[in-house]
Automatic annotation (TrEMBL):
Organism this protein belongs to: Comamonas terrae
Name under which the protein is recorded: Glutathione S-transferase family protein
Any Pfam family matching the protein: GST_C
SUPFAM superfamilies to which the protein is assigned, alphabetical: GST C-terminal domain-like, Thioredoxin-like
Chain ranges of the GST N-terminal domain: 1-81
PROSITE patterns in the cross-refs: GST_CTER, GST_NTER
Amino acid sequence: MLRILGKASSINVRKVLWTCAELDIPFEREDWGSGFRSTHTPEFLALNPNAMIPVIQDGDITLWESNSIIRYLANRYNGDRLYPAEAKAKAPIDQWIDWQASDLNRSWSYAFMSLVRQSPQHQDRHALAAACSEWTRHMEILDKQLASTEAYVGGKEFSLADIPIGLSVNRWFETPLAHKDLPAVHAYYERLSLRPAFLQYGRNGTP
């Protein structure tokens, strides 16, 4: 059975859990990370030298990096409906997955650490204002894309890209900052909320 190492509150672990739920993949999860077993032990570092969660073990393969993991799971467990094999159909999905990991993720980092984690190192009001502005700018990019598709981030059908993006939208709404009115993002959030797997692992009050 698929083994998932990582605490369930982690946004990156939740990507994996949501993917498993969408594809009906049975799994066993173990709590690792802050507040649980340390990822800096020799045991864990042998699995991921970066000391980060999640890590999966699936038979003889060990894999880390959450977006690589969800791609693997879709490829391995008949996930063509979420992640098609054909290159042109797959390209926009990969594009938005990568955008979430690089641009969008980076834009929220300071604001999230300041407002949610209450990190003492992230309380400069000017840096926080700049971070909130940058996060909003990236959410406006997403809003424009969703207004164009009138459905999901990669097109008319739910895809693997909506898992990292959907969790990012949850983080946006759950973080206590002034939220610009983004109608397409709001409609998307409600659309995702019709999916039981999103309610379990996405819109569950955990940013």
